[in-house]
Amino acid sequence: MKLGFVTSILDQYPLEQVIEVASGIGYECLEVACWPKGAAERRYAGVTHLDVEHLEERDEAKLHGLLKAKNITVSSLAYYPNTITSDLTQRAAHVSHLLKLIDCAQRLKVNMVTSFVGRVQEKTVAENLKIRQSAGKNSGGKPQDFRGSMETYYRARRGKRGKSRH
Q1: Which of 28, 32, 89, 122 ranks highest by number of CB atoms within 10 Å?
Q2: Is residue 146 part of a domain?
Q3: CA neighbor of 66 nearest in space, from 23, 101, 96
Q4: Domain extent for 92
């Protein structure tokens, strides 16, 4: 087991400095905050230690080099939005960014993405579960179940886009 922390607690530090701090204290891993660039909606939300929308290969190589030099691993890429908010435009944006995060995790060889299921505040738990079920259907009305692994997700995505880039 490795001990680590979520990088959003050091929201004023760039990722390189967070890695330095973690290594200096003796931590071995980090859950890296990957919110889209923009204003924070709540405490720790909006922290972008890794901008997955603009990450280039040279940035990936630099990150891997620093992590290796400091003996730190990335335990997961983190993004905790409300993915079933009643605002359908906001919901779509949250899910879209979450999918970009999953793509980035594969490129970085990080085998976990952490997120939040979310809820519609005005609804009961039972009503929210129904919303979650309907939100998890593909365009043909069939359930999409990506809970098994990212590989399951990628098999499904490859079927839509053609072959994966990796």
Answers
A1: 32
A2: no
A3: 23
A4: 4-120
